[in-house]
Amino acid sequence: MDLHVTCSALGSVRVSVATTGTDLDGNGYTVVAHATSFPGSVAGSLPTSDATTVLRVAAGRYVTTLQGVAANCDGGDIGPREIDVVSGATQTLDFAVVCEPARRLAYVAAFETENAEIYTVRSDGTGAVRLTNNLAEDTDPAWSPDGTRIAFVSVRDVIAADVYVMNADGTGERRLTDHRAVDTDPAWSPDGARIAFSSERDGNADIYIMNADGSGVTRLTTNTEPDGYPAWSPDGTRVAFSGTQCDGGWDGYCYPGVFVTGPQGTPVAVGPGADPAWSPDGRKLAVRRLACDYYDPTCSTVGLGILVPFTDATAGSQQTWDPELTAGQHGKPTWRP
Q1: Domains with residue ranges and CATH for the chain
Q2: 3-state SS track over 71-113
Q3: Looking at residue 272, what is its pLDDT?
Q4: Nearest residue to 301 (alpha-carbon basis) of 45, 49, 133, 112
Q5: DSSP β-bridge partners for residue 232
Q6: How far is it, in rounded angstroms, from Cα 335 to Cα 71?
Q7: Per residue in 287-337, pLDDT tens?
């Protein structure tokens, strides 16, 4: 048997990243070139300063992505790029990353335990601070609009099964829902006119919306799996929530996922995770990261991450993680305004 092997010169992709702004990404970036016409990919690391690397690849078309960008950093041209690599030639790709001052997020540590506590952390993963210290469960943190206070739920006294409102000083408590099923996870719309919440009133936990006075209850989702933890987008046009995403294969493998929907229409799956919280610019979602076993329906909480599905304001356009935000049994993040 005669075998004929033909070799051709490799091509090069020179990748440069210019980073500007405040609170620059401290751990650098990873650039990955995925071949589109044959299996294979090549990756390289770039520091934040003097960020240049050269990838040596076979000739062909590649989709090149910049990964590991911190949550407080962004840029109009950091999305995937398609490039044709020619044998013996060098192509150049330039990315520009702009970082803004890192915002703080509140979250729950020791999540789903009797000693859950409220913490805050910067969106670049540094500066974790503990805010509560009580033997009872403290959970569901929510920032005041001016970012000076945090409201939260505590199991120090009693647990309500319905949705209530009260003044910031604790007066004027008023019950909004009155149902035998559990109503939970209330979330105010940005204009204060509506409240999204999760309810089991129709036999399965789904997302509902009502007016601020408790009237006009409308069911938003009708899924067979439970939906919870709704979160309004900053412009009030969309709601993100926790649900269940299935691969549709013969084994029907399902895992926790984040969905986004408008007042009407079909929810769009935008990535894995739970407890979504919109960033103030409406382009990112802080989520609870989960590790799931394919052969076990249960998942464990492993920390907080940033899901970036809105690079061009379209749900599902990109899914990028910065898994270094926190590591541990943390959940229910919320951004400081």
Answers
A1: 11-99 (2.60.40.1120), 104-335 (2.120.10.30)
A2: CCEECCCCCCEEEEECCCCEEEEEEEEEECCCCEEEEEECCCC
A3: 85
A4: 112
A5: 239
A6: 12
A7: 999 888 766 667 888 999 888 877 655 555 555 666 668 889 998 898 888
